[in-house]
Write a structure and sequence with these properties.
This is Methyl-accepting chemotaxis protein. By secondary structure, the chain is mainly alpha-helical. It is built from 10 helices and no strands. Helix 5 (about 175-200) runs antiparallel to helix 6. It is flat.
């Protein structure tokens, strides 16, 4: 009976949540429906209104771009630039037509825009046709303007030529009749010049036409007056006949300056009319395109109003359903809380007793299946805890005994490790001192070896210097021998020069004797031999100079022979001393070689000593490091043993505390 009366609180919770979820789903469905309707309105805006605005703006931009290109054409006077602008205008025409076709395609869904489409198409044809006519009129105006300027300059030149040059030509004549007739001609000339200049300075078509008519009447008077003058003055026609013909053409005939000015003003007027028409067409086109924008704006406003209405309806429904869900949730929560609170209070009392240490308390059964299972599990947990705490009490007593024994054993091991650590530190200190001593020995041996190497290098350098000195002495000895030979040759050559000087002295004596004989013969010849006597006297003086110079050279050669003999004796003495020096240097070199061999042997022995000392230092350092490692290990073991002792002491304390805690529970 009790089992059949039990119900599930979980099922009641599920039922309540199912109802709440159903209401939430209904709310979501209503919101999605509103969102979908808003999306449809936005789709209408993006697919109908926005493309219409975008394409109409594009058409406006293309039209304005074409109009700008047209105006650039009208402001340019460079033929190449005009040709470029005309090509750009044709391109802009095609782009406008393409944009208009896009606008027609977009506006098909709006029948109320059909009339505007037709009006825009007709305006396109009118605008671009009128623009072509305007560009042609602009070319005509430019051509007429250029011709007008040339003709105006020509007219001014002709007028100056006739009014000044022709007047001077006639004034130079003595014929009074010609001068009287010319006066009437120049009055007509001045009249036509004034009328023509006034007409060229105005843009009024009627004034220009009046000037042309007046000049046509004056042309005949000028021609008749000129012919009358040429009959009296035949040379006048040859000088000014062509100028008169051109002047009459300019002022009143077809192709003259007034006629060209008239065509220029007409072309300018037509161009202004074209520009005014095109401006009107552009304004009308912008008004038509504004209608497209207005239609798109109306569609967007309608879609936005519909979306706002849908949004407000969705908010109202969502708020109503939300209030219902909140009230239902409060009701379900209150019912579930009341169903759950009673069994929970009973369980909490039992758990409080268990928390206070009374392991004998148990929970009662509940009418709900879940709380009944929970009570069973709590009772089972309390029984298991009661059994575990009984076993834990026994284990705590055993752990206390083991911790006491472990603490005494740890104290003994700690004492022995302390003794080992102190002995290891002593040995490590001794090995460190020994390492320093061996390092000093190794350093001394290394310094000795370096000094031996320095002595070895110095002896090698001395032996090289000695060898160079011996070689230089040998070279010097060889050069002294060569110098002795050269001095001997010099002495021999001096002797040869002395014999040559004897020959020269004999020749000088013979020459002196011949000069004396020549002087005697010249004295015998009297006046005829006076010139020969002078020559003989000069020869005698020359012979005397030769004798004196030979004596001086002989004295110098004798001094040279004496000096070369002394030099040869000194050089021979130097050769002897040089030989002695070479022998001594050779002996010194041999001694240096023996010293170098002994030093090399000492160097090798020093290297062996240094190497042995270094090996001993390395071995001692390794032993010292090993002892330091052993000391560190001993310190580590000692620290670890202290930690073990502390852990044993803590374990004893924890075992005591655990035993005290277990006894707090009522078993």
């Amino acid at each position: 009976m009790k089992k059949s009366s039990q119900t599930s609180v979980i099922r009641r919770m599920y039922s309540g949540f199912v109802v709440m979820v159903a209401l939430f789903v209904l709310t979501i469905v209503l919101m999605l429906d509103g969102t979908n309707r808003i999306h449809n309105q936005l789709t209408t805006v993006t697919t109908d209104a926005l493309p219409l605005v975008s394409i109409s703006n594009k058409v406006s931009v293309k039209l304005l771009a074409a109009d700008k290109t047209f105006k650039d054409f009208l402001t340019s006077q460079d033929p190449a630039a005009m040709k470029t602008y005309e090509a750009d205008f044709h391109k802009a025409t095609k782009e406008f037509a393409s944009a208009r076709q896009e606008l027609v395609a977009v506006a098909e869904s709006n029948p109320e825009l059909t009339n505007y489409i037709n009006a825009l198409t007709a305006l396109e044809q009118r605008y671009f046709a009128e623009a072509q006519v305007a560009m042609q009129n602009y070319r005509t105006q430019m051509l007429a303007g250029d011709e007008r300027q040339q003709s105006a300059r020509r007219f001014q030149r002709l007028q100056a030529e006739l009014s000044i040059g022709m007047k001077e030509y006639i004034n130079e004549q003595d014929n009074m009749a010609v001068k009287m007739m010319a006066k009437n001609f120049f009055v007509k000339l001045k009249e036509t010049e004034t009328i023509t200049s006034d007409a060229l300075a105005t843009d009024d078509i009627s004034s220009i036409e009046t000037a042309i008519k007046a000049n046509k009447r004056s042309v005949n008077h000028l021609a008749n007056a000129f012919r009358s003058l040429t009959t009296l003055l035949s040379g006048l026609k040859d000088s000014f006949g062509k100028s008169i013909n051109q002047y009459t053409l300019d002022i009143g005939k077809k192709g003259g300056v007034l006629d060209q000015h008239y065509e220029y003003i007409e072309a300018k007027t037509r161009l202004y009319n074209n520009i005014a028409t095109l401006t009107k067409e552009v304004n009308q086109a912008m008004s038509i395109l504004e209608q497209f924008n207005q239609q798109a704006t109306n569609q967007m406003d309608q879609a936005i109003q519909t979306a706002d209405s849908t949004y407000n309806q969705g908010i109202t429904k969502a708020v109503g359903i939300g209030i219902i869900v909140i009230l239902l949730a409060i009701s379900i929560g209150w019912y579930l809380a009341r169903s759950v609170r009673r069994p929970l209070v009973s369980m909490l009392k039992t758990l409080e007793s268990l928390t206070d240490g009374d392991m004998t308390q148990r929970t009662e059964r509940s009418q709900f299946i879940e709380f009944n299972k929970l009570s069973h599990h709590i009772n089972t947990l309390a029984g298991n805890l009661q059994q575990i705490l009984s076993q834990l009490s026994q284990a705590s007593e055993d752990l206390t005994k083991v911790a006491a024994e472990n603490q005494s054993t740890t104290a003994l091991a700690k004492q022995r490790l302390n003794d080992q650590r102190e002995q290891t530190v002593s040995v490590a200190t001794a090995m460190t001192e020994m390492e320093h001593s061996v390092t000093d020995v190794s350093q001394s041996a290394q310094n000795t070896m370096e000094r031996v190497h320095e002595v070895e290098r110095a002896s090698a350098t001395g032996r090289e210097v000695m060898s160079k000195n011996i070689n230089i002495a040998h070279q010097l000895s060889t050069r002294l021998d060569d110098s002795v030979t050269a001095v001997s040759d010099l002495q021999q050559m001096s002797s040869n020069i002395g014999s040559i000087l004897d020959v020269i002295r004999n020749i000088a004596d013979q020459t002196n004797l011949l000069a004396l004989n020549a002087a005697i013969e010249a004295a015998r010849a009297g006046d005829q031999g006076r010139g020969f006597a002078v020559v003989a006297d000069e020869v005698r003086v020359l012979a005397k100079r030769t004798t004196d110079s030979t004596s001086e050279i002989e004295s110098m050669i004798q001094n040279l022979q004496s000096s070369s003999g002394q030099a040869m004796e000194m050089m021979q003495s130097c050769v002897t001393e040089m030989d002695n020096s070479i022998n001594q240097a050779s002996d010194a070199n041999s001694a240096m070689e023996e010293i170098q061999a002994i030093i090399i042997e000492i160097s090798q022995m020093s290297s062996q000593i240094a190497q042995s000392a270094e090996e001993q230092r390395t071995t001692t350092a390794d032993i010292a490091r090993s002892l330091e490692d052993i000391s560190h290990i001993a310190d580590t073991n000692y620290t670890a043993m202290e930690e073990v002792a502390e852990a044993s002491s803590m374990l004893d304390t924890l075992a005591t505390e655990q035993n005290q805690l277990v006894h707090k529970f009522k078993l």
